[in-house]
Description:
Layout: H1 2-23, H2 26-34, H3 41-49, H4 54-66, H5 73-81, H6 86-99, H7 105-113, H8 118-126, E1 129-132, E2 136-139, E3 144-156, H9 167-183, H10 188-193, H11 196-204, E4 213-228, H12 229-284, H13 289-319
Antiparallel strand pairs: 1-3, 2-3, 3-4
Helix pairs in contact: 4-5, 4-6, 6-7, 6-8, 9-11
Amino acid sequence: xxxxxxxxxxxxxxxxxxxxxxxxxxxxxxxxxxxxxxxxxxxxxxxxxxxxxxxxxxxxxxxxxxxxxxxxxxxxxxxxxxxxxxxxxxxxxxxxxxxxxxxxxxxxxxxxxxxxxxxxxxxxxxxxxxxxxxxxxxxxxxxxxxxxxxxxxxxxxxxxxxxxxxxxxxxxxxxxxxxxxxxxxxxxxxxxxxxxxxxxxxxxxxxxxxxxxxxxxxxxxxxxxxxxxxxxxxxxxxxxxxxxxxxxxxxxxxxxxxxxxxxxxxxxxxxxxxxxxxxxxxxxxxxxxxxxxxxxxxxxxxxxxxxxxxxxxxxxxxxx
Length: 320
């Protein structure tokens, strides 16, 4: 009986020991002590209870202490609970400290929580980034299209990363500046001869205001001659003018046909009055019977001559 009780006690003690080592990160606590980072075991247990992974806090803290940064456990834990990337922030602080760039933890944490990669921003502050625009279509005053491609060297501005516009805004403004500069040129040849004029004019516009970057330089990588937009527009205008003229001519022709038909109606109406007038003249004695028959013979003779003339024309056409 005593043996069974002893085994039960030992089993409970073993289970408690296993649960202790599973729930309490003893190994992580020992690592922090070895790195001279003072974090109590109860603090780590509290992290577990707050659903914070102790390794996500302790390891970056050890890294920061070794780099000479004075960061506290509460700072890192608060940033973790806010949804931030603690390791990335610590790496950014170390990189900025090595590069001689002043960057406080609160600023780095704000940049990280804003959705930007703070470590990438610090690297870009040290090593500027080159972004390339796509072909920007611009038309000079002589109607020739130019396809311009530019390379923009930018440096991240840590003070404007929170709330500042991104690369898409920079590229859009560069494209606008290229279109404006080329469009103000009298001839496309001027742009081809002096492509650096585009860079100078665009840089003067201060296109990096309100963005998270500082534009260091704008270099024209390539300029290709595109379509003759002016000639195409003139051709389209000429085609439109021709269609308008044809429509007006068709309108005049339709009016002429309508007028002709109206006049023919007047003639038919007048011819309808001829028999009435002849009948009236016969009744009144103003036209004799012989005169009437002579008029009929004249009409028959005229009809016969017209028939003979039409037959002759048909024969000539057939002979040909």
